[in-house]
Design goal:
Elements lengths: L10 E3 L2 E2 L8 E2 L2 E3 L2 E5 L11 H16 L8 E6 L4 E6 H7 L5 H12 L6
Parallel strand pairs: 5-6
Antiparallel strand pairs: 1-4, 2-3, 4-5, 6-7
């Protein structure tokens, strides 16, 4: 796994976000530079990474945007050390790829669904 780990600074283990709207406080795996990563240890012989993992990351990015002390994120990433798999995609490109248009649009819908407010 160490070979899969990015080395960009800042490197933040276990970033935490406070309660947002109706959602409980949450924490991610790590941030490297401007990329929020989640580590999934799915055995490639028994399962695969699912789209729910990507939407979980997108939810964390929305929670981060609502946090006054949130981090500057620009990219989402997944690592699976058991499969030697590393993936990342710019946040805006990911939102376009899922048909959401932009992260601002995703964030607006997130706030409407959760009664959250975006940091100023």
């Amino acid at each position: 796994m160490l070979m899969l780990l990015p080395q960009e600074q800042p490197f933040i283990y276990n970033p935490r976000w406070p309660k947002v709207g109706c959602l409980a406080a949450s924490d991610g795996d790590f941030i490297s530079g401007r990329t929020l990563y989640d580590v999934k240890c799915v055995d490639p012989r028994k399962g695969k990474l699912s789209r729910e993992y990507l939407f979980q990351l997108l939810g964390y990015a929305c929670m981060n945007a609502c946090d006054l002390s949130g981090h500057q994120l620009g990219t989402l990433g997944l690592l699976n050390p058991r499969a030697g798999f590393a993936w990342s995609m710019e946040l805006e490109a990911f939102c376009r790829a899922i048909g959401a248009g932009s992260f601002d649009r995703v964030l607006q819908q997130f706030c409407e669904q959760t009664a959250a407010t975006v940091r100023e």
